User: Fold Penicillin-binding protein from Brachybacterium avium.
Amino acid sequence: MSSLDVLEEFGFEAAAIVLGPEGERARRGDVDLVRPWRSVTKTFTGCGATLAIQEGHVDLEDAAGPPGATLRHLLSHASGYFYESANTLQAPGLRRHYSNFGIDEAARHVERGIGGDFGDWVQERIAQPLGMTGLEWSGSASVGAHGPLTDLALFAAELLRPTLLEARWSAEMTCVQFPELVGIMPGFGKQSPNPFGLGIEVRGTKSPHWTGGDNSPATVGHFGMRGTAFWVDPEADLALVIGTSHDFCDAHREVMPRLADAVLAEHAG
Assistant:
């Protein structure tokens, strides 16, 4: 029995890769198929923005977005922007309101700082150094990436053992920003609190959740509404990358936590 046998419970095509600090430990299914990453894209935008901060092109406290907001607010879904527009629901820093527009605006701010295209920056500063040859970056910095699970696994491995970001900035990207904020977790309802880092979700104590009950609160990652997801658990020293052929649905809500717990039971410790 393998923990990846749980993939069969989805009831539609699914694939996965398990990673430890030494590299790949297991794989199942078509991990080379180019898939839409949708909101998983945000984690690359968070990393790309943090690289730009590390190099002094921009600063987390730069004014960006609606009045009173900063780049930090934009990257952590705390700017007050609506999901898909420049309209605002509330002042910055009052609530965690998930916003594609806010992430896109963060990328536009970084573009002004680096003096170039953000997608090119991601390709040159993240994809190429990590050997991600299949990443397709087009359109939105919040949902526009496509690629195979093998490429996403390279990024997950990078988060396990950072080489691109200095320790200070890797920790900043993956730690909770504005930790007290409450908000709606897409697909899982109100969470109090609802922690996020810089372009990346932090598990915290959210329940229900798409990771496992045995994942540590420090687990980071993201899922996309087209069925791609990944998590990195620094306490277990493990990562899991998942892709499916179905839009996010009840099967994902039910199977993904069981898959995570099975992977942790087999590979952690």
